[in-house]
Amino acid sequence: MNLLTKALPQTVAVDGIDYPVDTDFRLMVEFEIITNGPGTMEDKGEMIMPLVDRFFCGYIGFDVNHAIERFMWFYRCDDQPQKSYENNDEKDKAPRPVYSFDIDAPLIYAAFMDQYSIDLVCIKYLHWWAFRSLLSALRDDHEFKKIVGYRTMKITKDMSPEQKKAYRELKRIHRLPDYRSEEEKESEFANSLDALF
Predict the structure, then answer these.
(1) Angstrom distance (rounded) from CA 135 to CA 25
(2) 11: DSSP letter
(3) How far is C-alpha 36 from the geometric centre of its chain's CA atoms?
(4) Which of 1, 32, 45, 175 is deepest in the core (most CB within 10 A)?
C-alpha cells in the first residue's frame, strides 16, 4: 500500500466484514518483543493471543486462525517485507534479529526525538505503519543505526587484520542475546558445516 495515496487502515477485513482494530505502534512493538524474546513457541503463543485480542478491541467473533492471519497481515504492513532481520540466503537458516525493541528502546527513542521531534513515550497515538516507515528512514548517524550496522556487518577477506579485529569487537559488544533453542542452534551449525563441504 502506498502511504502517500491511501489512508492508513483503521480496520481489517475478516470474511468480508471490516473490524475496527488497535493500530497504535505499541501493540506491535510488544508483539515483536515477545516473538524475538526468550521462551518456547508454546509460551510465546500464550503471550501473543492476548495481543491479538487487544488488536481486535476485545472482539474475536470469528475463527481464531483468521484473526491471527489478519493480525500478521497488519504487523507486516500489508505484506511489506520487514527489516528487523538480516537478509538470509540460506533457506533452512532462521533469520536473526538485527535490532530489539526491548534492548534498543533508548536508542530508538533518542533517534525519534532527534530526527522527528516525536516523543515515543508521551505521544498518545502513532499508527504502526507510520512508525515502521519512520523507523526505516532514520538517518545513519544515529547510534541506533550505527549499532544495527555493526550487527549486520560482514567481515570480509578484503579487510585489514586491524579492521577485522575492530569490527569483531563491535559485533561482540552489540550482539543481541541468542534466544534460539538448542535444536535451532545445532541446525544452524550443521548447515554451516554442510556449506563448507
Answers:
(1) 11
(2) E
(3) 8
(4) 32
The three cell numbers of residue 177 are 542475546
Contact indicator for 142, 107 with CB cutoff of 8 Å: yes
Chain segment 76-98, per-residue pLDDT in tens: 998 655 555 555 554 445 567 89
12 SS3 class: strand
| Residue 127, all three cell numbers | 499508527
Tell whether the model's pLDDT for residue 101 goes beyond 70. Answer: yes
Question: What does the alpha-carbon distance between residue 102 and residue 88 come to, in Å, rounded to a whole number?
Answer: 23
How far is 29 from 104, CA to CA, in rounded Å? Answer: 12
**Nine-digit cell at 56?**
481486535
Handedness of CA 99, 103, 105, 110 (dihedral sign): negative
Query: SS3 of 95, please?
Result: coil
Give 56's strand partners: none
d(CA 62, CA 95): 32
The C-alpha R_g of the chain, in whole angstroms, comes to 19
Cβ atoms of 147 and 110 within 8 Å: the answer is no
CB 190 within 8 A of CB 196: no
How many angstroms from the chain centroid is the CA of residue 90? Answer: 19
Q: What is the dihedral of CA 119, 122, 127, 129, to 10 degrees?
A: 30
d(CA 12, CA 18): 5
Instruction: Give residue-wise pLDDT tens across range 31-53.
Output: 999 999 998 888 999 999 999 99
